[in-house]
Amino acid sequence: MDGDRLLCLCVELTNKVVEIHKSVSEKGEKYFCDRLLRSGTEVGLKVFSACKATGFLGCLDRLESALLFVYDTIYWANILFINKYIILDQCCEVRCLCEEIACLLTSKIYLLKSLR
């Protein structure tokens, strides 16, 4: 089921950004890694709350919001990589997770909008 896969990917993304946050914070960088942590964890929160939403519009709004946070997460991971706080493998792991989440979210959003 797509919903289960989506939630699992969100948990995996959260774990990855927490791991990156810990290692980058130890290097003294705070601003960029805090942004990555916020956006990366917000994805899962929005998806989880969309699953629990009682109304159609509430669910759609939360899924669209989660998609925006996915792109924010990619952006902050790229910034950390460009500034040499994380290595290419870490950046690619975050990007791959985000891209898979984005695909699932986009299909869910499209489906919900087509049902309106």
CATH H-tier superfamily? 23S rRNA-intervening sequence
Task: Count the DSSP helices.
Answer: 4
- N-C termini distance: 22 Å
Strand content: under 5%
- Looking at the structure, the CATH topology is de novo design (two linked rop proteins)
Shape call? elongated
Radius of gyration: 15 Å
Whole-number total of structural domains? 1
Q: How many β strands by DSSP?
A: 0
Structural class: mainly alpha
Secondary-structure element pattern, one letter each: HHHH
How is the main sheet built?
A: none
The oligomeric state is single chain
- CATH class annotation: Mainly Alpha
- As a percent range, the share of helical residues equals over 70%
Mean pLDDT: 95
From the 3D coordinates, which CATH architecture would you assign? Answer: Up-down Bundle
Parts with pLDDT < 50 across at least 5 consecutive residues: none
Structure notes:
The radius of gyration is 15 Å and the shape is elongated. α2 (31-52) runs antiparallel to α3 (56-82). The protein has one domain: de novo design (two linked rop proteins) (Up-down Bundle). 88% of the residues lie in helices and 0% in strands. The protein is built from four helices and no strands. The model has no long low-confidence stretch (mean pLDDT 95). It is mostly helical and 116 residues long.
